[in-house]
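Write out the 3D structure for:
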Amino acid sequence: MVQKKKGDGTPPPEAPAEPKRRGRPRAYEPDVALGKALDLFRQGGFAATSLDDLSAATGMNRPSLYGAFGDKRELYIRSYQRYRDEARAAMADIFRGDASVRRQLERIFATALDIYLSGEDGPRGCFTVMTAGSEAVQDGDIRAMVQDALRELDKAFAFCFRRAKDAGELPASADPVVLAQLASATIHTIAIRARAHAPRGELEAIVKGALDVMLRK
């Protein structure tokens, strides 16, 4: 038997191929899928958004949706929490800022309008007002979330007005709690009107009028 020598033209044995890494497609990433679900629920609400809609938007079939998020209601609740987290992050620095109370409130309402008027298919308004408020009638968990969202907004506005009163920007007779409720009511009003396609200029005029009333001495 003749042994083959090195360099005789015989190719070396191939190294075993590394196993291919199997990763989830981007559409299956929970954070991305949750964002797409949030967009759908903001646009159509709970009842009008079907599992087929959610599957098409996220790129996930029904078993994958159930495995990642639970049922449709769980996905809705997680979407609502995501909306609240993002809105809170957008507003946090403004509420903590040291600008005059009028300038601070102008920035808060302007940011709110940016959120409410966003959407590829038209203005989507506020998740709390436009869709969660309706679901809160029958669902205790969603109702608790809505109530918490309303209290949180009232407290944030009350902090602004209390600080402004202490700084002499408001009269001694001003009630920060009542003013906070008026500011929250203005937020809810412009959210509804934004969803109804009211132009931004009209909404800004409402905000200006409300601030004139709330901040007069």
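Residues 1-7, 21-27 have pLDDT under 50 and may be disordered.
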